[in-house]
Amino acid sequence: MKKLLIALVTLLPTLAMAAGGSNVHLESANxxxxxxxxxxxxxxxxxxxxxxxxxxxxxxxxxxxxxxGISVDDMRKKYMFTDAKxxxxxxxxxxxxxxxxxxGGAAPDLTLVARVRGQDxxxxxxxxxxxDESRPFGVNNTVFPLVGMPHVLEDLQGIPVKQEDGTFxxxxxxxxxxxYDQAVRDITGFLAYSADxxxxxxxxxxxxxxxxxxxxxxxxxxxxxxxxxxxx
Length: 232
Description:
By secondary structure, this protein is mainly alpha-helical. It has helices at 2-18, 36-49, 61-68, 72-79, 96-103, 113-117, 119-127, 154-157, 177-195, 199-228; strands at 56-60, 89-90, 129-131, 139-141, 159-162, 168-171. 53% of the residues lie in helices and 9% in strands. The relative contact order is 0.15.
Protein backbone atom coordinates (compact mmCIF):
# COMPACT_ATOMS: atom_id res chain seq x y z
CA MET A 1 0.00 0.00 0.00
CA LYS A 2 2.85 2.37 0.84
CA LYS A 3 4.41 1.84 -2.59
CA LEU A 4 1.09 2.48 -4.35
CA LEU A 5 0.66 5.74 -2.42
CA ILE A 6 4.17 6.80 -3.42
CA ALA A 7 3.35 6.04 -7.07
CA LEU A 8 0.19 8.15 -6.90
CA VAL A 9 2.10 11.03 -5.33
CA THR A 10 4.70 10.74 -8.09
CA LEU A 11 1.94 11.11 -10.67
CA LEU A 12 0.43 14.24 -9.09
CA PRO A 13 2.70 16.74 -10.92
CA THR A 14 1.78 15.09 -14.21
CA LEU A 15 -1.92 15.21 -13.41
CA ALA A 16 -1.76 18.85 -12.36
CA MET A 17 0.05 19.87 -15.53
CA ALA A 18 -2.37 17.89 -17.66
CA ALA A 19 -5.46 19.49 -16.11
CA GLY A 20 -5.56 22.10 -18.83
CA GLY A 21 -6.24 19.36 -21.41
CA SER A 22 -9.06 17.71 -19.49
CA ASN A 23 -11.77 18.96 -21.86
CA VAL A 24 -10.24 17.64 -25.07
CA HIS A 25 -11.84 14.79 -26.97
CA LEU A 26 -10.22 11.45 -26.17
CA GLU A 27 -10.08 8.67 -28.73
CA SER A 28 -11.12 5.18 -27.68
CA ALA A 29 -8.12 2.94 -27.07
CA ASN A 30 -10.05 -0.33 -27.61
CA UNK A 31 -7.47 -2.26 -25.61
CA UNK A 32 -7.85 -6.04 -25.37
CA UNK A 33 -6.06 -7.39 -22.30
CA UNK A 34 -6.61 -10.94 -23.56
CA UNK A 35 -4.39 -10.23 -26.59
CA UNK A 36 -1.01 -11.30 -25.23
CA UNK A 37 0.73 -10.70 -28.56
CA UNK A 38 -0.37 -7.06 -28.45
CA UNK A 39 0.73 -6.73 -24.82
CA UNK A 40 4.15 -8.17 -25.67
CA UNK A 41 4.52 -5.73 -28.58
CA UNK A 42 3.60 -2.98 -26.15
CA UNK A 43 6.24 -4.21 -23.71
CA UNK A 44 8.80 -4.19 -26.53
CA UNK A 45 7.92 -0.62 -27.58
CA UNK A 46 7.84 0.61 -23.99
CA UNK A 47 11.27 -0.85 -23.26
CA UNK A 48 12.73 0.61 -26.45
CA UNK A 49 11.23 4.10 -26.37
CA UNK A 50 10.04 4.82 -22.83
CA UNK A 51 12.03 2.88 -20.25
CA UNK A 52 15.11 5.05 -20.63
CA UNK A 53 13.33 7.79 -18.65
CA UNK A 54 10.12 6.24 -17.31
CA UNK A 55 9.87 3.21 -15.09
CA UNK A 56 7.13 0.76 -14.18
CA UNK A 57 8.79 0.20 -10.84
CA UNK A 58 5.81 -1.51 -9.19
CA UNK A 59 5.88 -4.27 -11.81
CA UNK A 60 8.38 -7.13 -11.94
CA UNK A 61 10.12 -8.61 -14.96
CA UNK A 62 9.29 -12.14 -13.83
CA UNK A 63 5.60 -11.36 -13.33
CA UNK A 64 5.36 -9.82 -16.80
CA UNK A 65 7.10 -12.84 -18.34
CA UNK A 66 4.70 -15.26 -16.61
CA UNK A 67 1.57 -13.28 -17.45
CA UNK A 68 2.45 -12.73 -21.12
CA GLY A 69 3.82 -16.20 -21.73
CA ILE A 70 7.40 -15.06 -22.33
CA SER A 71 10.24 -17.41 -21.45
CA VAL A 72 12.82 -16.22 -18.94
CA ASP A 73 15.56 -16.39 -21.59
CA ASP A 74 13.56 -14.29 -24.06
CA MET A 75 12.70 -11.80 -21.33
CA ARG A 76 16.37 -11.36 -20.52
CA LYS A 77 17.53 -11.15 -24.13
CA LYS A 78 14.77 -8.97 -25.59
CA TYR A 79 13.37 -6.78 -22.84
CA MET A 80 15.89 -6.41 -20.02
CA PHE A 81 18.46 -3.76 -20.92
CA THR A 82 20.21 -3.62 -17.55
CA ASP A 83 21.87 -6.18 -15.30
CA ALA A 84 18.67 -6.53 -13.24
CA LYS A 85 17.59 -9.98 -12.13
CA UNK A 86 14.38 -11.54 -13.44
CA UNK A 87 12.63 -11.08 -10.10
CA UNK A 88 13.49 -7.39 -9.74
CA UNK A 89 11.29 -4.36 -10.30
CA UNK A 90 11.23 -2.66 -13.70
CA UNK A 91 13.06 0.55 -12.89
CA UNK A 92 14.38 3.03 -15.44
CA UNK A 93 18.00 3.59 -16.30
CA UNK A 94 18.34 7.31 -15.43
CA UNK A 95 18.97 8.30 -11.80
CA UNK A 96 16.32 10.75 -10.55
CA UNK A 97 18.94 13.42 -9.78
CA UNK A 98 20.29 13.33 -13.35
CA UNK A 99 16.79 13.39 -14.85
CA UNK A 100 15.91 16.44 -12.76
CA UNK A 101 19.08 18.20 -13.92
CA UNK A 102 18.61 17.39 -17.61
CA UNK A 103 14.82 17.72 -17.97
CA GLY A 104 13.84 19.93 -15.04
CA GLY A 105 12.25 17.05 -13.14
CA ALA A 106 12.35 13.28 -12.86
CA ALA A 107 10.06 11.48 -15.31
CA PRO A 108 7.06 10.00 -13.45
CA ASP A 109 6.69 6.29 -12.94
CA LEU A 110 4.03 4.93 -15.32
CA THR A 111 2.91 1.77 -13.54
CA LEU A 112 -0.44 3.29 -12.55
CA VAL A 113 -0.91 5.96 -15.22
CA ALA A 114 -3.53 3.96 -17.15
CA ARG A 115 -5.47 3.38 -13.94
CA VAL A 116 -5.30 7.01 -12.81
CA ARG A 117 -5.86 8.76 -16.14
CA GLY A 118 -7.61 6.01 -18.09
CA GLN A 119 -6.65 4.03 -21.18
CA ASP A 120 -8.23 6.54 -23.58
CA UNK A 121 -6.15 9.36 -22.10
CA UNK A 122 -2.89 7.44 -22.53
CA UNK A 123 -3.80 6.45 -26.08
CA UNK A 124 -4.82 9.99 -27.07
CA UNK A 125 -1.78 11.51 -25.38
CA UNK A 126 0.63 9.32 -27.34
CA UNK A 127 -1.14 10.38 -30.54
CA UNK A 128 -1.37 14.03 -29.53
CA UNK A 129 2.13 15.36 -30.21
CA UNK A 130 2.59 18.07 -32.85
CA UNK A 131 5.30 20.49 -33.93
CA ASP A 132 5.64 23.63 -31.80
CA GLU A 133 8.92 25.50 -32.09
CA SER A 134 8.10 27.61 -29.03
CA ARG A 135 8.50 24.59 -26.74
CA PRO A 136 11.90 23.44 -25.41
CA PHE A 137 11.75 20.11 -27.28
CA GLY A 138 10.01 21.53 -30.34
CA VAL A 139 6.68 19.77 -29.72
CA ASN A 140 3.43 20.31 -27.86
CA ASN A 141 0.52 17.99 -27.13
CA THR A 142 -3.21 18.34 -27.73
CA VAL A 143 -4.06 16.34 -24.60
CA PHE A 144 -1.23 17.60 -22.38
CA PRO A 145 -0.65 21.30 -23.20
CA LEU A 146 2.86 22.61 -22.58
CA VAL A 147 4.19 19.07 -22.36
CA GLY A 148 7.71 18.87 -20.97
CA MET A 149 9.03 15.87 -22.88
CA PRO A 150 10.11 15.18 -26.46
CA HIS A 151 8.05 13.16 -28.91
CA VAL A 152 9.92 9.90 -28.33
CA LEU A 153 7.88 8.04 -30.96
CA GLU A 154 8.65 10.60 -33.66
CA ASP A 155 10.67 8.16 -35.76
CA LEU A 156 7.60 5.88 -35.88
CA GLN A 157 4.88 8.49 -36.41
CA GLY A 158 6.75 11.39 -37.93
CA ILE A 159 5.99 14.90 -36.75
CA PRO A 160 2.42 16.26 -37.14
CA VAL A 161 2.32 19.90 -38.24
CA LYS A 162 -0.73 21.99 -37.37
CA GLN A 163 -2.38 23.71 -40.32
CA GLU A 164 -4.29 27.01 -40.33
CA ASP A 165 -7.63 25.16 -40.34
CA GLY A 166 -6.66 23.24 -37.19
CA THR A 167 -5.95 19.93 -38.92
CA PHE A 168 -2.61 18.16 -38.80
CA UNK A 169 -0.37 16.93 -41.60
CA UNK A 170 2.22 14.33 -40.62
CA UNK A 171 5.58 14.12 -42.35
CA UNK A 172 8.20 11.39 -42.04
CA UNK A 173 7.88 8.36 -39.82
CA UNK A 174 8.43 4.65 -40.40
CA UNK A 175 4.77 3.70 -39.89
CA UNK A 176 1.63 4.74 -41.68
CA UNK A 177 -1.31 6.13 -39.68
CA UNK A 178 -2.96 2.73 -39.16
CA UNK A 179 0.28 1.05 -38.09
CA TYR A 180 1.08 3.87 -35.68
CA ASP A 181 -2.39 3.65 -34.14
CA GLN A 182 -1.78 -0.05 -33.49
CA ALA A 183 1.66 0.64 -31.99
CA VAL A 184 0.16 3.20 -29.62
CA ARG A 185 -2.66 0.77 -28.76
CA ASP A 186 -0.04 -1.88 -27.94
CA ILE A 187 1.81 0.47 -25.57
CA THR A 188 -1.47 1.55 -23.97
CA GLY A 189 -2.44 -2.08 -23.52
CA PHE A 190 0.83 -2.89 -21.77
CA LEU A 191 0.41 0.09 -19.43
CA ALA A 192 -3.22 -0.89 -18.76
CA TYR A 193 -2.06 -4.41 -17.90
CA SER A 194 0.76 -3.08 -15.68
CA ALA A 195 -1.67 -0.88 -13.77
CA ASP A 196 -3.80 -3.90 -12.83
CA UNK A 197 -2.00 -7.20 -13.54
CA UNK A 198 -4.60 -9.33 -11.75
CA UNK A 199 -7.64 -7.81 -13.49
CA UNK A 200 -8.33 -10.80 -15.74
CA UNK A 201 -7.77 -13.25 -12.88
CA UNK A 202 -10.08 -11.21 -10.67
CA UNK A 203 -12.81 -11.10 -13.30
CA UNK A 204 -12.53 -14.85 -13.95
CA UNK A 205 -12.71 -15.56 -10.24
CA UNK A 206 -15.74 -13.30 -10.00
CA UNK A 207 -17.74 -15.56 -12.31
CA UNK A 208 -16.86 -18.58 -10.16
CA UNK A 209 -17.97 -16.69 -7.04
CA UNK A 210 -21.26 -15.70 -8.66
CA UNK A 211 -21.79 -19.31 -9.75
CA UNK A 212 -21.13 -20.55 -6.23
CA UNK A 213 -23.52 -18.01 -4.71
CA UNK A 214 -26.24 -18.94 -7.19
CA UNK A 215 -25.77 -22.66 -6.44
CA UNK A 216 -25.72 -22.01 -2.68
CA UNK A 217 -28.89 -19.87 -3.00
CA UNK A 218 -30.75 -22.81 -4.56
CA UNK A 219 -29.61 -25.14 -1.79
CA UNK A 220 -30.53 -22.57 0.88
CA UNK A 221 -33.96 -22.04 -0.70
CA UNK A 222 -34.73 -25.77 -0.84
CA UNK A 223 -33.47 -26.18 2.73
CA UNK A 224 -35.71 -23.33 3.88
CA UNK A 225 -38.73 -24.95 2.22
CA UNK A 226 -37.94 -28.25 3.94
CA UNK A 227 -37.61 -26.64 7.37
CA UNK A 228 -40.80 -24.57 7.05
CA UNK A 229 -43.08 -27.00 5.27
CA UNK A 230 -44.82 -28.06 8.49
CA UNK A 231 -45.24 -24.44 9.62
CA UNK A 232 -47.10 -23.42 6.49
